[in-house]
Amino acid sequence: MKTLIQNFSRDEQGQGLIEYTLLLAFVAMASAALFISAGSSIKGIWSATNTQLTNANTAVS
Questions:
Q1: How far apart are CA 20 and CA 5, in angstroms?
Q2: Burial (CB count within 10 angstroms: exposed 0-12, middle 13-18, buried 19+), residue 53
Q3: CA distance 40 to 49
Q4: Which pLDDT does position 24 carry in this prediction?
Q5: Residue ranges of the alpha helices (H) in the chain?
Q6: What residue ranges do the domains of the chain occupy?
């Protein structure tokens, strides 16, 4: 039983998978924060574009 516990504590086989999972979680959180903060900027760009297209459509008609 003692040997089993020692082998289990020294085993590093799943360590790489855990590190990559944590890295992926960090990248996902950073991406979500970026998209949330960029949302208002994108909304402003679409609003300005829509206004210009509406004005151009009115001028042509």
A1: 26
A2: exposed
A3: 14
A4: 95
A5: 2-10, 15-60
A6: 16-60
pLDDT value at residue 25: 96
- What is the token pair recorded at 11? 């085993």
Which residue has tokens 């998978």? 17
Residue 56 structure tokens:
């151009």
- C-alpha 39/C-alpha 29 separation (Å) is 15
Distance in angstroms (rounded) separating the CA atoms of residues 60 and 6: 81
Which pLDDT tens digit goes with each residue over 11-60? 767 777 888 999 999 999 999 988 888 887 888 899 999 999 999 999 88
pTM for the full model?
0.50
For residue 50, the model assigns a pLDDT of 95
Angle at 57 between CA 53 and CA 61, to 5 degrees: 175
